[in-house]
Structure formats: C-alpha cells, structure tokens
Design a protein that fits this description.
Shape: rod-shaped
Structural class: alpha+beta
Strand content: 25-35%
Keywords: Membrane, Transmembrane, Transmembrane helix
Distance between the termini: 102 Å
Helix content: 40-55%
Number of domains: 3
CATH topology of the largest domain: Immunoglobulin-like
Order of helices and strands: HHHHHEEEHEHEEEHEEEEHEEEE
Number of helices: 9
C-alpha cells in the first residue's frame, strides 16, 4: 500500500505575515460593517466598521516590526549556520590529517614489538633463521641499558696472573640486581644468554675454585646507586647461599650449580623505576689467556669505552692490540695511545658487540 503524500506545511513566520496582511485588507473593506449591521443594527455596524479602519495603522506598524525582527533572526541564523559549517569543515580537515597518524600510533602501541620487527625483517631477509636472529638481537627479553660507560684497566701483571679493574655505569629500570660469576668463556656465555636476568657476568680463570674465591670477590665487587640527592651510595653485594641459588634459577644446559655462584644486594634493598648505577669489580685472569675482552650481553646505548692494558704491555714487551667488534666503528672517535684505547661511540650495541685487548 502506497504511503499518502506528505502534507506541505507553511513556515510559522509566513503564516503570521499572511494573517496580518489579510486582517489589514479585511478591516479596510465594508465586510465587517455589513456583518455587524446585520447582527446588531446599522448604527452599531457603522461604528464598529469605523473603529476597525483605525486599526490599519497599528496593524501596518506591527507588520513592519515583525518583518524587521524576522530579517534579523534570519540573518543571525544564516551567520550561525555559516559558522557551524566552517567549524565542521575545519574539523573534517583535522580529522583527515590526524586520524591516520593517530590510528598508526594506536596500532603501534598495541602491536607486539617482536611481531612488528619480524614483519620489517621479512622485507630484508628471506631465511627464517636470519629473521629470527635479527628479531632476537633487537627485541631482547633482557632489560636494555642506557647511557653506558665502560672502563677496563689491568693493574698488577706478571707472567702468571693479571689483575683487572672493571667499571660499568648505566641507566636502566632495575628491581633485583644479581651478579653471576663463573669460569671460562663457554660458561660465561651460557649464563649470559640464560633466561635469568643477570645484571652482569664475571669470568674468572678456569683453574680457580669458586668457593675459595667467593670471599675474595665479595670484597672487590661493589654497586653504587645514585640517590635522590644526586650522590652515589655504595651497595655491597652478598653471596647467595647454595640452597637459595637452587630455588632462584635453574642452571643452563651443560652446567650445574657447582659451575657458578651468584651475588645479590642485601635483602631490604628496594630499587624502583629507572636507576643510575655504577658497578666496580676487581678480579684476576690468567696471563697465558693472552686477551681481555668485554662485550654487550643485551641492547645498550654505549657512550664510551676505555681499555687500558699498559701494565700487561710492560710484561709482554710489546704493545697490546685491540680488536673492535662494533658495527660502523669507522665513524666513531677512536684514540689508541701505546696500549690504551679510548673510544667514544654514542651508539646502540647489540648482543655480542664489544672489544678485545690481545697481547
């Protein structure tokens, strides 16, 4: 069944003006007098007709005033509508410009960083192993370190033993700080790549006994924490008992709890948020290993690294050589004087980047 046609309704302002005009026309005709005369007599009709004709001027003034206010109202409405239209137009432009950027930002905030890296790596590499390697290097599960400075310095040295001082300063979000100690490069790498979040790993000579060296190391490893006043306060490491170590972490594949020891900060030490810390270690290595090295075990922004091996050069009788394992090291400021290297990097390093001093 077809819907009835819509009725056209005149605007109220137009209806009002038509009524006023009709009334002006009506009172200026004999019709009102005739009607009144027929009902109440000729004299009354003539009197009422004369009175109505006197209303013409008032009705005309009312018409003019109404027209004026209608024009003003129409003008204001038109101006308001124009302003609204302009605002809507500006809003559309803003939405058009901002929405894609905001949508991209929201997508990036909600997306998994590893998945985003994987998609980017797929455009550069074909092999799945290559892609996974790149992703694991950049999106490491370990807490990244910022504003890192490293100093390695050989102290007393002879043809059997070299004493080493190491300092590393950094900024990072730290809660629990654990330091691992093990023997040899193989075990050092295994601990470093384990899922446990070690702050750092110290490697000692393979012929040294871990239990014997525990007290020796405890007096030679320190952590300095920058407090709210801007001063560095010393926090000493304490050894983790064997029973507690067994519940703290599982040894990496190929290792047992006898192959490493763990140090931690005293109980009750609370670190929250981004912290500025500096760790200092003193330990020994065998001279016949013929090298001293440091490498990043996670993504970190390295400001500067200094390696001073002059005491070893005095024993060996020749200068120490330095091998850099840093991407784009040619663009870095490298100063090598005698057997001392100072390199200003200001670059992000990935796991495995570092430097070795060879004698």
């Amino acid at each position: 069944m077809a819907a009835p046609p819509a009725r056209r309704v005149l605007p109220r302002s137009l209806t009002f003006f038509i009524s006023i005009i009709s009334m002006i026309v009506l009172v200026n005709t004999p019709a009102p007098g005739i009607v009144i005369s027929a009902l109440f007599g000729q004299k009354v009709g003539e009197s009422i007709g004369a009175s109505l004709r006197g209303l013409t001027r008032d009705l005309f003034l009312l018409l003019l005033v109404s027209l004026y206010f209608e024009l003003v109202r129409s003008h204001m409405q038109a101006k308001t509508l124009s302003t609204i239209e302009q605002d809507l137009s500006d809003l559309k432009i803003q939405v058009r410009d901002v929405l894609p950027e905001r949508a991209t930002s929201m997508a990036m905030e909600s997306a998994d960083p590893r998945e985003m890296l994987k998609r980017a790596a797929q455009r550069l590499f074909k092999s799945t192993k290559e892609i996974e390697s790149v992703v694991s290097q950049i999106a490491s599960p370990k807490t990244p370190y910022d504003e890192v400075t490293v100093e390695l310095r050989t102290l007393e040295a002879n043809e059997k033993t070299v004493s080493v001082f190491m300092s590393i300063g950094l900024e990072a979000e730290l809660t629990n700080v654990h330091l691992g100690v093990t023997k040899g490069a193989e075990y050092t790498t295994a601990l470093s790549t384990s899922s446990f979040g070690f702050f750092d790993i110290i490697s000692i000579p393979s012929d040294m006994d871990l239990k014997t060296i525990q007290k020796y190391l405890q007096a030679r490893i320190k952590l300095y924490h920058k407090d709210d006043s801007g001063r560095f306060q010393e926090l000493r490491f304490i050894p983790v008992p064997r029973a507690e170590q067994a519940t703290l972490l599982s040894p990496p594949t190929g290792m047992t709890h006898d192959d490493f020891i763990v140090f931690r900060l005293p109980k009750g030490t609370v670190l929250t948020g981004t912290q500025k810390v500096r760790a200092e270690y003193k330990f020994d290595i065998n001279y016949d290993e013929h090298f001293l090295y440091w490498y990043a075990d996670r993504p970190m922004f390295l400001r500067q690294i200094t390696v001073d091996a002059n005491s070893v050069a005095l024993v060996s009788g020749h200068k120490v050589r330095f091998q850099l394992f840093v991407a784009d090291s040619e663009s870095s400021i490298v100063d090598i004087h005698d057997s001392r290297l100072s390199m200003k990097l200001d670059k992000w390093l990935l796991d495995g980047h570092g430097v070795a001093a060879i004698w």
